[in-house]
Amino acid sequence: MFTQKRLTEAYKNAKKMYFDDHSRIVFMSDAHRGDGSTSDEFLKSRNLFVHALNEYYENGYTFFEVGDGEELLEYSEMEHIKNAHTDTYQAIKKFFDKDRYIRIFGNHDIYLDNPKYVKKNLFINYDEYNEVFYDFLKGIEPHEAVILKHRNTSQELFVLHGHQGDAPNDQFWFFTMLSIKYFWRFFHRVGIKNPASPVKNVTKRHKIERNYSKWIEKHRRALICGHTHRFKFPNNKQIPYFNTGCGIYPASITALELTEGMLRLVRWKEKVNENGVLHIKRETMRGPEPVEAFDIRKPKEVVEYLAEVKIQRTKKTRETRAAFREEEMENDNED
């Protein structure tokens, strides 16, 4: 019951934005960037993340970071996090400077809900080499949630982190922070994770996802979130619940793409070719599916018809624009 209330509150207060069939958006979440120490889980996927961001930037995407970008409950000094991952923040700044970076806060970066904290830690940065301060993400306004509304059909995609209503990570987040910072942090360094987290607790994770589904069925809106670290692309189009997965899997990261009015779940991972050359490859895991296929406001027959029309109409355009630069790099390596 509380989850339904919190999701509805977030929806009512969400920032409204528009998209259409020419929009290119990538949703990624749960990078949990740390301070570069042995307990920083982001270290193992940092190169994947930076490479993926560079590809999305070059291909004209807007980057939605859907919460828990930083692990601020475990590492309280944002300055240390920025210094540990300079390449990552340089890539993020490129998006921001082109007005193509949208930041949503989650439970592990809840401090971004405080404008004073944001101004102090994200508006400026310090260049240790040249010993000067410079404008970083000056003027950024992190949001709890965003509603993406299609300009022509009015279909909505509700985007938020997904911790809303998960009591330990929402209304009692402060006590969770204390337990992580002063207890679980030390176990984390040797590979032991908090069993109460939805990431490790399957029963809790499924309960959270059931609550998402109930809200979707009641309000007839597609929902895109993170939080559970379990990627999701709906088989049942009547319950359009999408989860971006996370940026700290052992050997890959995941993302949800919205391009040409089509949704696609992808994975970026390291591969080795026949010549023993290590490279990064983007793989499609689910989709692409027309966004209209998940519009549960309309009768099923109408939705299926509109989806089929979209597939046929955009086939050539999608094939032309689908290629990423890493495919060219792979071919160069094979030559």
Which helices and strands appear, and what pairs or packs with what?
Blueprint: H1 2-12, E1 15-19, E2 24-28, H2 46-58, E3 62-66, H3 78-84, H4 86-97, E4 101-104, H5 115-122, E5 124-127, E6 132-135, E7 145-150, E8 156-160, H6 173-188, H7 202-219, E9 222-225, E10 241-243, E11 252-259, E12 262-272, E13 278-290, H8 300-321, H9 325-334
Parallel strand pairs: 1-7, 2-3, 3-4, 8-9, 9-10
Antiparallel strand pairs: 2-11, 5-6, 7-8, 11-12, 12-13
Helix pairs in contact: 1-7, 2-4
Give a summary of the structure in a few sentences:
One of its GO terms (molecular function) is UDP-2,3-diacylglucosamine hydrolase activity. This protein is α/β, with parallel strands linked by helices. It has nine helices and 13 strands.
